[in-house]
UniProtKB/TrEMBL annotation, chains A, B:
Binding site residues for substrate: 97, 107, 135, 221
Cofactor binding, per record: Binds 1 Mg(2+) or Mn(2+) ion per subunit.
Reactions that this protein is recorded to catalyse: (2R,3S)-3-isopropylmalate + NAD(+) = 4-methyl-2-oxopentanoate + CO2 + NADH
Chain positions of site Important for catalysis: 142, 189
Annotated function: Catalyzes the oxidation of 3-carboxy-2-hydroxy-4-methylpentanoate (3-isopropylmalate) to 3-carboxy-4-methyl-2-oxopentanoate. The product decarboxylates to 4-methyl-2 oxopentanoate.
Listed EC numbers: 1.1.1.85
Name of the molecule in the record: 3-isopropylmalate dehydrogenase
Family annotation (InterPro entries): IsoCit/isopropylmalate_DH_CS, IsoPropMal-DH-like_dom, Isopropylmalate_DH
Classification lineage: Bacteria, Pseudomonadati, Bacteroidota, Flavobacteriia, Flavobacteriales
Gene name of this polypeptide: leuB
PANTHER family (alphabetical): 3-ISOPROPYLMALATE DEHYDROGENASE
HAMAP family according to UniProt: LeuB_type1 (MF_01033)
């Protein structure tokens, strides 16, 4: 098969980790007889510097004319503590999600036996954890009206959801639950928020279409607790944008494998794949960043965008082998020998 | 001294745990020569059942004419999965916070050496944790416009903050930091939300008035991670209402002492003290609920509302002694002998 893949490396360590995912994907393509054409395009601070825009139209065109998007990371500290900055890398991210219609962010959290000791949680708490969040990604308070009144003294952000937005996300949740242990948790704050009550009533109305799925409803604050206490009690969780932002990040650290967690963002027409870690500015250019999350994101791409599970598995197997043989960057080396970003990428490509 | 204390027992285990706090407070009053008049009043589902209103005007009058409010817990499962319920216990809570002007929720998370093994976190992660959240409690999305449009198909919740609301909360945060390790973390989502940008710029402008305090700014998703990874790296954290709801609950479980965590909600005129745990309906009437969080809330009341640190300390000492001697409810008994709610309360009162 032939694929065009938009390649959005972004900021910080983005370009370095993306380079490894490209290497590994090319090795997979070679082995299975596919042909990948990579279409690099600018995004984030890099795009602001080049063309004054974090998600330029040309980049959007590259994405829409591709079969999938592989994304590195964006964000630069020079924007973080400057509330007056008019253009921010994150706006590019939000614009991209919206314009590409990437409404469902798929965020698995699972454990690697060899890394379980890296978890901040006790072994008996984290063992067996294998959950997936579906975070709504193009609605809610991120995209509502926002601004100032009273000469800047009052600020507001409006959170809004339509029933259809909830439905299409929940549908993906029910479907995913059907392929797993048939447990779905709807996370909301229905005791306070009207949008949450819409979420809850919409999901409740869908239950009859999936009689095999056991649905539970939990408040976001309760989930924030149980994720730390009994993460392995969850399977598929669905939630709105802001709750998802907070909870998926919380979930990502419990496994001890954060540097390895991939993600997908699905739309009606295209999907984007990216590591969940950020642009890690302090590590930029040092050849120390862990490329495995980006490489595993490429595995998700083969599986979910191209429906090629064997290709995805080839990548996962290589990563597992690297972990087992200690071919890891310093974050996973535990004081033992460690390898550079490029070296790990080379090893993975060679072991496909 | 003479005090009138409004006593809002609420729902579920509320009445049982409040009874113990009253017992212990009375013992303290006796020992130190104070006179407490308790003013019971209805709230929560109990108030809905009695007068159709979760925070009746009579209850409000009792609170405003008292020197402090001691609160149990509210919430009843029959309201939880009914999005159409017109009156909810939680509305009483929100109305109460608003009408009493309780804008600063003070939520400490600390560890007890004897309970550290109950933490889901590894010992080296949790040891030494002693942090306090100041959660804004009367603004934000909890109290903004909310409703439906398009015949119920679209729901909205508006989040709003004024600079003055941020300032008065932040002021308490700076002051608290000055009495502790002089570290303040402002938690926001300034890369996305306009309200968060107002928070950040307001706190930044206040830094010059507290030159000794080191202020950091972190995104809410990053804090959700670091609370699990390195909770002992935090001291005082300030944040808006919804973020505070999620993060304080997350923080509460990391210590392993959740059943023991007290809280205070401060206003300009009055303060309210309550355990952070909920109404725990399954345990109601079984004499198994742990009363220590409510008892420690009474300690906070003596300290913060009446400025009587010795009285507070007498309570804390009794709790520590009970923990050391194993006079605990079954949640802390680790399979060993355990005591009933009342028995623990009696023991604490006898040991003041
Ligand atoms: C950078 C930021 C806008 C973004 C978000 O909050 O969505 C990030 O935290 C994420 O989760 O992808
Ligand atoms: C019951 C609910 C309205 C409340 C809140 O979200 O504020 C509770 O979770 C709390 O934190 O006190």
């Amino acid at each position: 098969m032939k694929f065009n893949i938009a390649l959005l490396a972004g900021d910080g360590i983005g370009p370095e980790v993306i380079e490894q995912a490209v290497k590994v994907s090319d090795a997979v393509a070679k082995k299975f007889g596919h042909e990948i054409t990579w279409k690099p395009a600018l995004t984030g601070a890099a795009a602001i510097d080049a063309v004054g825009e974090p998600y330029p139209d040309e980049t959007h065109d590259v994405c829409t004319s591709s079969d999938a998007v592989l994304f590195g990371a964006i964000g630069h500290p020079r924007f973080d503590n400057d509330p007056s900055a008019k253009v921010r890398p994150e706006q590019g991210l939000l614009k991209m999600r919206k314009k590409l219609g990437l409404f469902a962010n798929v965020r698995p959290t699972f454990t690697f036996p060899s890394l379980i000791d890296k978890s901040p949680l006790k072994k008996e708490r984290i063992e067996g954890t294998d959950l997936v969040f579906l975070r709504e990604l193009t609605g809610g308070i991120y995209f509502g009206d926002k601004g100032r009144r009273d000469g800047g003294e009052t600020a507001f952000d409006n959170c809004e959801y339509t029933r259809d937005e909830v439905k299409r996300l929940a549908k993906k949740g029910f479907e995913l639950a059907m392929t797993r242990s048939k447990k779905l948790c709807c996370v909301d704050k229905a005791n306070v928020l009207e949008t949450s009550r819409l979420w809850r009533e919409t999901v409740q109305a869908m239950e009859k279409d999936y009689p095999e799925v056991t649905v539970s409803y939990e408040f976001v604050d309760a989930v924030a607790m149980r994720l730390v206490q009994w993460p392995n009690s969850y399977d598929v969780l669905i939630t709105e944008n802001l709750f998802g932002d907070i909870l998926t990040d919380e979930a990502s650290v419990i496994s001890g494998s954060m540097g390895l967690m991939p993600s997908a963002s699905m739309g009606a027409d295209i999907a984007l794949f990216e590591p969940i870690h950020g642009s890690y500015p302090q590590a930029t250019g040092k050849n120390i960043a862990n490329p495995m999350a980006t490489v595993l994101s490429a595995a998700m791409m083969f599986e979910m965008a191209f429906n090629l599970p064997d290709e995805g598995k080839a990548i996962r197997d290589a990563v597992n082998k690297a972990l087992a043989e200690g071919i890891v960057t310093e974050d996973l080396a535990d004081g033992g020998p460690s390898y550079g970003t490029k070296e790990v990428g080379d090893w993975l490509a060679a072991n496909i």
